[in-house]
Amino acid sequence: MAGRGVDLDRATLDRWVEKFAGAIAEEARRRKAPTGRSWRTDETYVKVKGKRTYLYPAIDKRGNTLDFMLSERRDEAAATAFFAKAIGKNGWPDKVVIDKSGSKTVGPFDMNGLLVMYGWRWSIAVRRTKYLNRGTAG
């Protein structure tokens, strides 16, 4: 804005971010390309403000990040919440490739339980591979 001769205060920019960030994010979601129906998920831990936090990402077959979640715990509730969030934003996958982690395995199986409970005739195929982090999953 300074290049255009407009003098702005930082507080004004902060108010603009608060006012327009939601609309911009919604428009970006609306324009987002369709996601692949085959997902890969993994988990790792990262330090956030010096505290160990688990990062759950969902990546489609083309390598595009679909969603991610940070969690203080690595348990069934966190894995289920992550899958529910990712499905809510990207639709239901046909296949999910995961490593052999016990906590993450529960998430897609919980989603399959919901599908059965509501009378759906299909479920998410879950493929478990030991070496997901090494790029051998397909």
TrEMBL record:
Give the matching InterPro entries: DDE_dom, IS_Transposase
Origin species: Sedimentitalea nanhaiensis
Name of the molecule in the record: Putative transposase
Q: Which PANTHER family does the record match to this protein?
A: BLL1675 PROTEIN (PTHR35528)
The protein's superkingdom reads: Bacteria
Domain DDE residues, every copy: 37-103
Q: Name one Pfam family in it.
A: DDE_Tnp_IS240
